[in-house]
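Protein in question filed below.

…
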Amino acid sequence: QDYTDQINDILALLAGVYRDADGLAARVVPGEGADLQIWILGSSAGESAEVAGTRGLRFASNYHVAPASVLEATDAYRAAFEQLRAAGQVFACACTRKEIADSALARDGTRRYPGTCRNGLPPGREARAWRLRVEPGVVSFDDAVQGLICEDVAADVGDFVLLRADGLFAYQLAVVVDDAAAGVTEVVRGADLLDSTARQILLQRLLGHPSPAYAHLPVAGNAAGEKLSKQTLARAVEDARPQQVLADALDFLGQAPPDGLVDASLDALWAWARANWSMERVPRQRLVPAPRYG
């Protein structure tokens, strides 16, 4: 099993909606060992954390989470979903990926939903997923790195999924609920998530949550313009040279550390970074080449 299958199976078991490849149901039975923690993510931080994020999990790699906390998170997602449904802001959708495969591309490379089921399911079709009913209008926010961002979610993305066909809540809803529950006021993340932000702000407004301040840092890329990852065969970070890695990261983010700093102690390097950090010097780009690691 790959990371995606493992995480989906664990969440489905805990939510009571698991089916194996033959369609047979299984569920978690409380009893001896029920309070044991589950190892959600593996040791491959990049891949496992990335997959977890797409499944609505906000956990770092090598993180232990008890079953109760997963169920509590799922309850919070469902409460938010029901709030939106009670307000008439979601609708059932019978469309498969194949059926919308020829739709226009959104900014993030996904397919824009054409609105097929917006006014009701086609005759003889059953709901597979539930989508947010997105009304026309521009969502704007001032990103601390990328500047003013404006997006008409209805025009660029369309009605997006909140509850997926496999019974799991989608990342966009989960991240909004999680951030609100944690009282998050500032979000600093990679620019590969910039195109998700307008959708999240839209959900925050509909659910009555304040929007945090955002800063989307450029992601490291190779010569082909691809984000560095295992899939693009990027080099692993050298644990034996933390000063070099930190100096490279500071340089990548436009902070221009002095040449001799790489030979200083790690404490000295961090002290320089804290004293000299400037958000204004971070490149206003979504992707910046990182040849040393590409």
Remarks:
- Residues 191 and 216 are 5 Å apart (CA to CA).
- The chain has eight helices and 13 strands.
